[in-house]
Structures are given as structure tokens and as C-alpha cells.
Amino acid sequence: MLAVAAVTQSTDDPLSGLHVGDIDEPPVPEDWVSIDVVTCALNHHDLWSLKGVGLPGDRLPMILGCDAAGQAPDGAEVLVYPVISSPGFQGDVTNDPRRSLLSEVYPGTLAERVRVPAGNLVPKPEGLSWEQAACLPTAWLTAYRMLFTNAAVHPGDTVLVQGAGGGVATAAIQLAAAAGLRVWATSRDAAKRDLAKELGATETFESGARLPDRVDAVMETVGAATWSHSVNSLRPGGTIVISGATSGDAPAKAELTKIFFKQLRVIGSTMGTRDELARLARFVADKGIEPQIDSVLPLAQARTGFERMAAGDVGGKIVFRV
Ligand SMILES: NC(=O)c1ccc[n+]([C@@H]2O[C@H](COP(=O)([O-])OP(=O)(O)OC[C@H]3O[C@@H](n4cnc5c(N)ncnc54)[C@H](OP(=O)(O)O)[C@@H]3O)[C@@H](O)[C@H]2O)c1
């Protein structure tokens, strides 16, 4: 089948290890189902895998991808929930120490077919296109949990979204605006700041710019490049939720003094639960939210999407049609 895989890894030239072509179809484990993928989407996670972050080299070749929407064997239209728990684990799967995402241990979604545990399916919301549906399982789920589970923000609160152009960031802007929050967003790029406004941001700022007021919560995925700004932008008692560190995980200043003196909360966030994905899907459908898509490419042209993401040149999700 046609699939997109990591065959080698390189920090400096991650795309040198990208294979787009025919791959033997992996077997379907017991109690798992094979989904015919209609659309799948790219995440920064796929670039990290090509760089050797989070995917040990002895698991190569590995089919990449965490996001998919498609058809189940019974014909149902579904979203794939990509978090795989360890056998017998009970409770919030994001706290399972041996959980994995599709493409870390089990082959991922950037393929004609993907195998998942039968319980890892969520109905595709009616009214969402296949392309929009493929955006939800990773970036949108992450943004949903960051805002509503971990920051626990309320309508009227002000939330700052760093790095407005990214998949998680555009999702956070759209979800926060739909939930009645005042959304401020930063980006390095003027066109992405304009996009953020179109998506519902109240105000936008250049990365690192001094804000007119302190915010209640910051959605942080950029990491080192924006960390000090995130700490400095919070009101006393405010919350940073961090789910990524695209620009690196070693900021020049950890800002420890400000964190304790202002009694800030720093909360790590990873993906979300299957129930959160189901609630997200309902919220997006009920509110008529249209997930921001940067571009749609045939799966066979996946390399172009990877190149755009590696260059930091995205405004929303890059989606592949199978
Ligand atoms: N923990 C989790 O479960 C989880 C889930 C999803 C994603 N993540 C992580 O969250 C991060 C974002 O993921 P994504 O899929 O949204 O990625 P993406 O679509 O590639 O977005 C990355 C964004 O980072 C921003 N950025 C700002 N300064 C940067 C710099 N100096 N270098 C590079 N990028 C910079 C850019 O925004 P501007 O150009 O607008 O400034 C860019 O659009 C990744 O690190 C990813 O691994 C984690």
C-alpha cells in the first residue's frame, strides 16, 4: 500500500530519511481493526520522528502519522484516536507511563490503511469535511485539553497563544474564540498574525512584544524562543500550559524566581483522552467551527508538506488525501 515512512533519522536533514511509496501492509493485531484512511494530517511529531526524537532507531522503518479519518470495516465514518494504552491500564490514558502514539510503536496513519484497537474510534462529526475531520485527533485534541482541562479557563478570561501559525496554535485560537475567551496571539510572521485575527484572535502581536495587559493563561508550544515572554505575560496566579518546545527545550532563562514570586502554575499537557476527543468533535460540530487547513495534498505528494513544516511555513494543518 502507499504509505509515508521514516527509514533513517537525521537531526540536521530529517527529510533525507523520508520514504513515500509502496510499503508492505503490517498485520492487524487481535482485537484491532483496519481503517480505510480517507484523509490524514501532518504533525510536528512526524518531523521529530525523522529527527530521532521519541522514535528509537531500532523501530525503523516506521509508518509515520497520528491523525486519520476514514471508514471502519462496518462502513462507519470515524476519527482515529491515536493514543495506544498498555494492556490492562485503567484511568486517564495520558497518564499511562507505557502509552504510545501511533507511529511510535505501532505503524501510523499516513497510509492507505491504519490498524487501531477497536475502542480507539470516535464517530466523525456530521458536517465536517473529511479534510477538517483529519485535523482533530492530535493538534486539536491537544489544544482542547490545554485550554479546557489543564488551563481551566472561563469565558471572558484572556488567553495568549504563542506561535500562531502552528497546528496546535491555530486550533487553540479557534477553540478559545468559540468558547468566549479573549484571545491574544503572537507570531513571527505578519501574514500569520493576520490569519490569527481571521480565526478569532482579538489582538495579535509580534513574537516577544510587550502586551497591553497581563493574561490569565498562556498556551505554549514554541518553547525556548517564547518561554520568558510567556512567564512575563501572566498575571499573578496565572497558568502556562506547555505541550511542546518546537524551538528547543532549554530556554536562556528558566525564570524560576518569577514563577514562584508570581505564584504561577506551569502545567504540562499531552494529547487528550478518547472522551475528550469525542467532546471536541461535538463542540466543533455544534459550533460550526471549521478547522484551519493550510493545504491539502495527495498522500503521494506528502514530501511537499513535510518541507513546508520543516521550514516553519504553515498556517494551520497540512492534510493529505489518500
Ligand atoms: N504534547 C503533545 O501531546 C503534543 C501534541 C501536538 C503537538 N505537540 C508539540 O507542539 C509543537 C507544535 O506542534 P504543531 O504540530 O502545531 O507544529 P507546527 O504546525 O509545525 O507549528 C510550529 C509553530 O511554532 C512556531 N514557532 C515560533 N517560533 C519558532 C521558532 N523559533 N522555531 C520554530 N517554530 C517556531 C511557529 O509559529 P509562528 O511561525 O506563527 O511564529 C510554527 O507555526 C511541536 O513541538 C509538537 O511536537 C505536542
TrEMBL record:
- Any Pfam family from its record, for instance, is ADH_N
Q: Coiled coil: which residue ranges?
A: none
- Molecular function per GO: oxidoreductase activity
Q: InterPro entries in the record, alphabetically?
A: ADH-like_C (IPR013149), ADH-like_N (IPR013154), ER (IPR020843), GroES-like_sf (IPR011032), NAD(P)-bd_dom_sf (IPR036291), Zinc_ADH-like (IPR052711)
Query: Mind telling me which SMART domains this protein's record contains?
Result: PKS_ER
Q: Where is the Enoyl reductase (ER) domain?
A: 13-320
Q: Which PANTHER family does the annotation name?
A: DEHYDROGENASE, PUTATIVE (AFU_ORTHOLOGUE AFUA_2G13270)-RELATED (PTHR45033:SF3), PTHR45033
Listed name of the protein: Putative oxidoreductase
